[in-house]
Each structure stands twice: as C-alpha cells, then as structure tokens.
Amino acid sequence: MEEDRAQTDLGIAADIEEAQAPPSPPVQKQPKKRFVGRRTAASAASNGAGGPSVEDSGAIQVAQPRRAPRLLNQVPPEILEDLNLKEAMTLLPANYSFEIPKTIHRIRSAGAKKVALQMPEGLLLFATTISDILTQFCPGIETLIMGDVTYGACCIDDYTARALGCDLLVHYAHSCLIPVDVTKIKTLYVFVDISIDTSHLLATLERNFATPKTIAIVGTIQFNATIHSVRSTLEKAGYKILIPQIAPLSKGEILGCTSPRLPDTEKVDLILYLGDGRFHLESIMIHNPSIPAYRYDPYSRKLTRETYGHEEMQSLRRDAIKTAKGAKKWGLILGSLGRQGNPHTMALIESKLTQMGIPWVNLLLSEIFPGKLALMSDVECWVQVACPRLSIDWGYAFPRPLLTPYEALIALEERQEWSDGVYPMDYYGKEGLGRTKGVPLNRLLGLSLKETRMIVQCEFVLDIFLEYQEGIGGNSAPEHAPFRLQNILWLMQLTGSPGSTSRVQWLWTQAQPDKEHWSPDLHAARFVYRFDRWVDDINGGWVRSADR
Fold first, then answer.
1. How many angstroms separate the first and last alpha carbons of the chain?
2. Which residue of 144, 157, 193, 494 has the lowest C-beta tally within 10 Å?
3. Is the previous residue joined to 440 through a cis bond, with omega within 30 degrees of 0?
4. What band does 248 get if pLDDT is binned at 50, 70 and 90?
5. Among 341, 519, 362, 359, residue whose Cα is nearest residue 433
6. For 140-174, b where at least 16 C-beta lie within 10 A, e where not — what string?
7. What pLDDT, in 10s, does the model give residues 344-384?
8. Region annotation Disordered: residue ranges (predicted)?
9. How many CB atoms lie within 10 A of CB 202?
10. Could you give the 3-state DSSP secondary structure of residue 219?
11. How far apart are CA 373 and CA 379, in angstroms?
C-alpha cells in the first residue's frame, strides 16, 4: 500500500478510511519465483504438483548426486612422480616446458605405435633427446623426427605424418592454429612455455617508461604465460596494461601474418613485444603504424626501439597491384608446406578470374623461389595462397608481381584498397583469408554416411572430398555457392568422372536456399539430404547407397 501511495495521491478521504480500518496482520515478503525451466516444471507436475510453478506446488525436488569433478587428460601420478623420468628430463633445459609427462600419457592412452615429432629449427637440437626419453618410457613405440622447415603454426604437417604411417603427431612451439579435430591424425600441441627473468624485465620497463603509460604487451606463444604474469605487477606500478587479442589466437599472442588492430579509444602509448627476432613484431607494427614499438629480447635481456618502413612497403605493394591489373595471364600458387594452402581462398580467386575472362594456371609449391617462377615467363602475375609475408617482405625480388590473396582481390576489384595508411594483418583472423568459415563438411559427411549407410567402393574419391572440404562446403553463405560448385566440377575433372555436369549443377541449385530464408542449420540439413545424390552423380556410380 505504501508503494502505491508513493505513486498515486488518493486524497484525505483515503487517509481517514485507512485510519479507521482495523489493523491487518503483518505481511511477510515472499521471495521471487525462481525460473526452473519447462522440463523441470513438467516433471514436478507429473509428480503431483498442483501449482502453476514448482515453487507453488507440493512437489519435492530430489537433488541428484553430484558427480565428482574430473580433469580431462590429467597426467596420472605414476608418471608425474616417476623419479627415473624426472632424472631423464634434466637433460633438457629447465626453463623450457616440453611437457614430457603429458606427452607420455597421451602416447600411452592413445595406444600410439609411431609418433611424429615436429618442431621449428631452433628446437631441433633437443629433438633426439626428446625422442630417446619417449622411447624409453613408452616401450614399443617408434619416433620419427620431421626435418622439413617449420616456419609457424600453419606448417603443421599432419598429411606427411599420416603418409609415413604415424598415428600421433606432437607439434612443438606453436599454438593450435589448426584445430585437433581437423588434423588427419591425432595431434598434441606443446607450446614450449619458456620461463624468463621477469624481475629484469620489470626493472627495465620502470627505468625506461615513466608512469602513467598505456602499454600493449604482445609476444609469441612461448612467452604468453609471462605476459599475463607481469600484468598485475606493472599495473600496481602505475601503468595501464593492455593485452590485445585477435580471435582465434590467445590474448597477447601474435603471428607473423596475424595481429590485432589496437583501437584508438585505448590511447595506447607504446607496443611492447616480448620475444627474439622481428618477424612477429613486424606484423603488429604493420597493423598499427602510428604506435611506437619496442622489443624486449629475453635472451640478450635488451630493450630496443624498433621501426618499420611503412611508406616504402605500401608503395611497393601498390605498384605490384597496379601491374597485376594489366596482366593477361595469372598464376595461382597453392602452398603445400604443411597447412599453408587454403583451397577455399584459391577457389575464390579462380571464380573471380573466370568471371573476368582472365586465364590462369595452378601451381603447387612447398616453398616459393624467384628462379622457379621465372621458368614460366608467360605468366604475368602470381598469387600465392601460402604466406602473406612472403609477398610483403620479398615480393620486390620476384620478376613478376607476387600478390597475397588480399592484394589479388584488390586487383580484381573484389575488395577495397587499404586506407588511412593501415595495411591489414588479419590473415588467420575470423574474417581473414587464411581461415575457412562455415559448416565443416567432414561433420556433415559423417552424418550422411551414418544415415544413408553408404558403401564407399573407391577410397580415393572420398579422400578428395575430405581434402577439399573448404572448397566444397567450407563457406555456407549463399553468395559463395558458385565457388563450391566450381570446385565440385573441378573434382569431376580430377577423377575422370563420367557423371553429367548439368545434372550436378541442377542438384547443386536445388540444394541452395534463398538468401531471405537462409540459415546455417537449414543449409546443413539440405546438404546432408542431397549429399549421397551428389556423390553418386559426380562419381558416375562409383559410390552406391546400401538402400538402393
């Protein structure tokens, strides 16, 4: 009543009437009804509840016993406390975390017999020691050290490991850029966290930068734990610390081709890179040209001011794009070094070239050298779907323009040129050209095989479908349907399929939802429903359903 009185004045008559009324018993305030969900309410009602909700009913909710929490992939004590293993691990640097116990546990639990070890060249001097430890404490296994160059996380070589008969791949010193549910064999990522002298780092920063300063701290995955550990100490010292992120990378992690764009609202005073070398640092410098950058080398324990020739680089890239616009024949390079190449991005550029009537040739290369491309003098422009930094850093050394996918789409008038002097470095970001977006085809394929009980009589054809999942089903947006159709028709040519091209095109058109009512789930359902028919028509009878 008091709450109503506060909002509405009923006059003096109401006050007199209220004073003459007999006193009412005090009203106990009831708690608000808790939302319990439809399923819980229905269950309570079936047990004799008569009220409109569980709280109003006499139903008794019997608490279910809580399951004891489990730690997935927890290393058992018999491995962690093995004195012989601890002694063997002393052969490795104490400040390098190679996660030997975790690796041994993974090998044993997976029942692996042949394990591939892949690491960058800087860690290869420890490869034989790691191999000896693993074979000693996992009797019966065979290890294989992969010696091909490994520049970054994009170079994970699960294809080669599978071809060599390995059933587990341990990839060192890079983050999970390629998810473990995408790799062709079981994969374990070991970040190789490196512990450093943080007291020297903190003292160096306090001596060189006055407070208050806004510092954005980034680094490679090896020093990611250190970046987060020094944050609180620096903030207590008076600094404002920003640890930026570009998804799907971790906070503070950058790659040579992928780094966050720092917002102007944060008013960042400087960028601090924690790590050795300049390759990764240059990525965030290119993406944030107006912010001063510093590098703290944890090995030499030196802090240096770093600069970059932004105007020269951007001028060279603009000249290459301008020259490419007049090229009469293009060459498209798909990188085969690990997972560098992206068939979806390749198909995107191919489709645009087809629309513009420009001929092109495809080339598969693990490493790209000027002399190799010079042998094909009729090609007037090259596009490499491998590493963007190859074009940015070394493009001037090639006899013909060597474009990144982003630059190629600018030359083909599919994208706008960068503005405000900021060249984008988001290749493996969520919207970058290095990633594949959409509903994974391998998941849809599994549903289709399960529901139609298809019998695959030609494993080669099925492998091609899986290998080209980015091109066929990687991007579910309607505007990208022509690119996936083009890959299916290309697949028919590769396999020598006698199937009808027009029939495949008709089936594909029937499966495409209109843009107004499009959704990923709807597209996935239609894809699964017609997948067996596509396979049957494309392969001309090589694959048959058991129901037919």
1. 75
2. 494
3. no
4. confident
5. 341
6. ebebbebeeebbbbbbbbbebbeeeebbbbbbbbb
7. 899 999 999 999 999 999 999 999 999 999 999 999 999 99
8. 1-56
9. 14
10. strand
11. 9
Tell me the pLDDT of the chain averaged across its residues.
78
CA dihedral 226, 227, 228, 231 (to 10 degrees): 110
> What band does 503 get if pLDDT is binned at 50, 70 and 90?
low
Determine the Cα–Cα distance for residues 187 and 169; give it in Å rounded to an integer.
5
57-68 pLDDT, tens digit per residue, is 444 555 556 655
Q: Is 419 exposed, middle or buried (0-12, 13-18, 19+ CB in 10 A)?
A: exposed
Rounded CA-CA distance 86/340 in Å is 37
What's the longest Cα–Cα distance across the chain?
Answer: 107
* Residue 337 Cα to chain centre, angstroms: 18
Q: Are 277 and 304 in contact (CB under 8 A)?
A: no
- pTM summary value: 0.68
Residue 507 in contact with residue 534, Cβ under 8 Å? yes
Share of residues in the chain with pLDDT > 70 (%): 66
**Helix ranges, 29-168 (H):** 38-46, 77-80, 83-89, 100-110, 127-137, 158-163
Token duo for residue 478: 């309607």
Main-chain phi, psi angles of 540, to 5 degrees:
60, 35
pLDDT value, residue 504: 53
Write down the H helix ranges in 209-299: 224-229, 231-236, 279-287
Return the closest-CA partner of residue 381 out of 420, 422, 410, 339: 410
- The least confident of 82-91, 276-285, 405-414, 523-532 is 523-532
Q: What percentage of the chain's residues is helix, strand, coil (to nearest 5)?
A: 45, 15, 45
CA angle 197/203/208 to nearest 5° reads 130
Residue written as tokens 């001929």? 359
Question: For residues 130 and 100, is the Cβ–Cβ distance under 8 A?
Answer: yes
Is the preceding omega at residue 260 within 30 degrees of 0, hence cis? no
157/336 Cα distance (integer angstroms) = 9
pLDDT at 323: 96
The angle at the Cα of 544, spanning 441 to 533, to the nearest 5 degrees, equals 50
Q: Which residue has the tokens 């020691």?
A: 129
- 3-class SS at 353? helix
Q: Are 118 and 174 in contact (CB under 8 A)?
A: no
Cα angle: 118, vertex 121, 124; to 5 degrees? 65
Among residues 461, 537, 472, 467, which one has the least CA distance to residue 504?
A: 537
Rounded distance, CA 43 to CA 49, Å?
Answer: 9
- The angle at the Cα of 500, spanning 496 to 503, to the nearest 5 degrees, equals 140
Which domains are delineated in the chain? 77-193 (3.40.50.11840), 198-306 (3.40.50.11850), 310-411 (3.40.50.11860), 441-545 (no CATH)
Length of the chain: 548
Q: Residue 68 has what DSSP assignment?
A: P
Angstrom distance (rounded) from CA 537 to CA 545:
12
